[in-house]
């Protein structure tokens, strides 16, 4: 019976079903590593990314009755893919839970975490114009002094020249103190821009993040879970408040 299939990230020759593992068995929950992310905006919409991996080169596709039930803020979704949007609201400490239900294997019902406090992005104003080689962006927000981690970054796409790949640095720079103000230098971004593109449309993203806890039914070993100091892909449950604003980035390489 088919339960899960491996989708290769590197080569089509690695395409397997669970029954084609060395011992002809479905993939146990203990061999799965979750990569769960929640990104909640000012409207209370939570974009949820749900990926299960087994190693550095493959992800796991749910088939054969396996499903993820995600709940939060009174909303509920049953997911068999990798992405969904849930109307959770954005209140601090709203709990979001991932319940992995497997009819023929061990369930993992208790991966969960809470949203960090919401904030309001007040600067820059929409469509402010900057020069990548010269400028920094002054970023301001309200509802400060949280103890959760914060970051700011910019993603861009070329407006003036086709064929230039988009660039995403929205994971951005860590903000050391939640004081409601920081300066984001565009110098690192400038070094990565294509000199054939003179104007980029950008989105500045401010995020406040909090780690959740993963169900103990997932792998790897308890020691590896505790220290995160082990070989293999990352595994996590992270919940973010995310606020974004469009900006324009001029590119004037020397």
Please write out the topology.
Blueprint: E1 4-8, E2 16-17, E3 33-40, E4 45-55, E5 58-62, E6 67-72, E7 75-79, E8 83-87, E9 95-101, E10 108-114, E11 121-123, E12 128-131, E13 136-141, E14 149-158, E15 167-168, E16 173-175, E17 181-185, H1 187-190, E18 199-211, H2 222-227, E19 236-250
Parallel strand pairs: 3-19, 12-19
Antiparallel strand pairs: 1-2, 1-5, 3-4, 4-5, 4-8, 6-7, 6-9, 9-10, 11-13, 13-17, 14-15, 14-16, 14-18, 18-19
Highlighted features:
disordered N terminus, 19 strands, 254 residues, mainly beta, 2 helices, 4-stranded antiparallel beta sheet, 4% helix
Number of helices: 2
Describe the sheet with the most strands. Answer: 12 strands, mixed
Helix/strand order, N-terminal first: EEEEEEEEEEEEEEEEEHEHE
Gyration radius, rounded: 21 Å
Low-pLDDT runs of 5+ residues are 1-24
Strand % is: over 45%
Termini Cα gap: 61 Å
Number of strands: 19
Average per-residue pLDDT, rounded, comes to 86
Structural class: mainly beta
Shape: globular
Total individual domains: 2
Percent range of helical residues: under 10%
Can you tell me about this structure?
It is a single chain. The chain is mostly beta strands. The protein has two domains: 4-19 and 27-116 and 210-241, no CATH class; 121-208 and 243-250, Immunoglobulin-like, CATH 2.60.40. The chain contains two helices and 19 strands. The strands form three sheets. Strands 1, 2, 3, 4, 5, 8, 12, 14, 15, 16, 18 and 19 form a twelve-stranded mixed β-sheet that branches. The chain has a four-stranded antiparallel β-sheet with strand order 7-6-9-10, with no helix packed on it. The protein has a three-stranded antiparallel β-sheet with strand order 11-13-17. β14 and β15 (167-168) form a beta hairpin. The longest helix is centred in the last third of the chain and has 6 residues, at 222-227.
